[in-house]
Amino acid sequence: DAGVIQSPRHEVTEMGQEVTLRCKPISGHNSLFWYRQTMMRGLELLIYFNNNVPIDDSGMPEDRFSAKMPNASFSTLKIQPSEPRDSAVYFCASSRDRGRWDYTFGSGTRLTVV
Amino acid sequence: DQQVKQNSPSLSVQEGRISILNCDYTNSMFDYFLWYKKYPAEGPTFLISISSIKDKNEDGRFTVFLNKSAKHLSLHIVPSQPGDSAVYFCAASETGTASKLTFGTGTRLQVTL
């Protein structure tokens, strides 16, 4: 099992540009989560999907952030336009069943907006 | 508003000694607690968990203690090993919120030789 795969590993972009982060969950996992890690706030849940349907997006900071899960094997997190304060590490995680908390995290995407 | 707090950003312990990582929470509705471990350039990995109906859960060298009245939990690692050097995140969930976890800011543990 390849685990949760995120791409790119690193992204450096200029303020105002669109950024798209990608995630492939573990096959058979039906819950997918996007988290953001910062020094000040730790790991914050942005949004999560169950069976490809967004269940809770209350953590999405602004309308500049959007996430999609068009099928069970792919999800994207898009920031448009990006701002320097969006710089963080973004993690995707998946789990087998709703209500299970032993997530499997990807290795993260380190985003730097200059 | 940080509902899960890890007030010690870092901790250094000698190999073989006990490491104690602390976590406080403010939401009395939290009823399930977890610890995750994170190495550099990797995602967090699940370590150990505890339900609010228990006050202790043990798994090998790792033990989690829960004090509900104080809204406090701690992770004990005995004996500490150099491979335990990592960032440890405390997380909590409440019934009815499905798989939603609220994480703390993490504590960096350094186990020295």
- Residue fraction in strands of chain A: over 45%
Mean pLDDT of chain A: 93
Which chains share the greatest interface?
Answer: A-B, 29 and 25 residues
Task: Work out the helix count of chain B.
Answer: 0
Radius of gyration of chain B: 13 Å
Count of DSSP E strands of chain B? 11
Q: Note poorly predicted spans of chain B.
A: none
Secondary structure class of chain A reads mainly beta
What does the oligomeric state look like here?
Answer: heterodimer
Q: Can you count the helices of chain A?
A: 0
Helix content of chain A: under 10%
Word description of this protein:
The complex is a heterodimer of chains A (114) and B (113). Chain A contains no helices and 11 strands. Chain A has strands spanning 5-7, 10-13, 19-24, 31-38, 42-50, 53-56, 65-71, 74-79, 88-95, 104-105, 109-113. In chain A, a hairpin with a 3-residue loop joins strand 4 and strand 5. Chain A is globular and about 40 Å long. The mean pLDDT of chain A is 93. Chain B has 113 residues and is mainly β. Chain B has strands at 4-5, 10-14, 19-25, 30-38, 45-51, 56-59, 62-67, 72-77, 86-94, 102-103, 107-112. In chain B, strand 4 and strand 5 (45-51) form a beta hairpin. The A-B interface holds A 4, 31, 33, 35, 39-45, 48, 50, 55-56, 91, 93, 95, 98-108 and B 2, 4, 6, 32, 34, 41-46, 49, 89, 91, 93, 97-106.
